[in-house]
Amino acid sequence: MRGEPLPIYGDGSNIRSFLYCEDVAEAYEDRPFNDQRYFLDDQKLKKLGWCERTNWEEGLRKTIEWYKNNPKWWGDVSGVLLPHPRLSMMPAEEANEDNVEASDC
Question: Which SUPFAM superfamilies does the entry mention (predicted)?
Answer without folding.
Answer: NAD(P)-binding Rossmann-fold domains (SSF51735)
